[in-house]
Amino acid sequence: xxxxxxxxxxxxxxxxxxxxxxxxxxxxxxxxxxxxxxxxxxxxxxxxxxxxxxxxxxxxxxxxxxxxxxxxxxxxxxxxxxxxxxxxxxxxxxxxxxxxxxxxxxxxxxxxxxxxxxxxxxxxxxxxxxxxxxxxxxxxxxxxxxxxxxxxxxxx
Length: 156
Fold this sequence. Notes:
single chain; mainly alpha; 4% strand
């Protein structure tokens, strides 16, 4: 098997596993089961580390400095490969890119969901901690005063 094919198959498999984990993350975010997010994050990090390692391997394989490759570099390298490897590797590379694009889109959706949960949590904390904007009310002297949220303190 061509070394690049083996590498791209491993990379595609890892990205697919990462995409599945992102789908699980989205399901948790939609069900508001925030306590399960820690487990997902713990499983995501090793996948991210492995994806970075494989990307570096691929970069070195095509003759670029580690971490310095681009899609254009990969496309140029693929065009220089002899047939029938070139066609097979190009198809596998396109599959890898397609799955990576799906993962990126899902990651952005999850980020948006997480930001919405965070905003709701912060709003709830504001209410619980009485950090909401003070509502001005008129006191017995006709002047505005801030309502503290406690009837006992306000009547004293």
